[in-house]
Amino acid sequence: MYQDFATFHNRLTLRATLTLKTGLRIGSGAGDSVVGAEIPIVRDALGRPFIPGSSFKGALRAAVERIARTINRRPDLWACANPLDHEAGACVTRRRKEELLREATTNGRIDEQEFARTVAKETCTVCRLFGSPWLAAKLRVKDLSLIEESWAGRVEVRTGVGIDRDTCTAAGQVLYSFEVVPAGTRFRCELVVENADDVELGLLFLGLREMQRGRIPLGGARSRGLGWAELSGWETFERIDREHLLDYLIEGKIEGKIGMVHFSREIG
Ligand SMILES: [Zn+2]
Question: What does the alpha-carbon distance between residue 204 and residue 129 come to, in Å, rounded to a whole number?
């Protein structure tokens, strides 16, 4: 993973509220089909439910991939066939990465900036935003923390029927139960995008609009109708450009550069 602080150009921080329209199941540890188990949701140190940023990011990435494949204007905006297949489906395969690494190496010394630049050039728009094994993500999603007043302090427990692994049939006796965060619960959402160009930002905003419309499911047990949520209430829109970076590092924030912007106005 390479991060080049010298080329820092801009940072955008977006904050919104995620409201559950149905129950949400994001389990900790064991999978959904473990027979006889009682599967808890993920909780923070104080026992409150939260949504791992990685879960949110994964769901958003899947949606953004679909959009990018539909638009498919290579090399400006595209998505590779399978970012997880580093042998064939990914935009920059393991073999290609090795080639680029050799090309960026002189007398046994790797020019990391050159390597990062050539990898980025061949990386699809989605992997540039969400990251790949060879390139740091431009988008970071913080863990979504609970908005206390939206939660009554209780989770729901649902019951499922386990699948017998030997016969592959639903075995009547083997029930399992899992916790679900109730509908109506709200979470704080914060995304940080660094050094994204207009195309990358535009693609991200198309994905966020799908989330705003409640079309992207989160978590597990989706076949049971769980995981539907809506993003709303975009509060702040913070953009830090290169010339203000020093101020930002010294002051922590930049007066006049942080404004209230309605998200709908930004993406139409
Ligand atoms: Zn890719």
Answer: 8
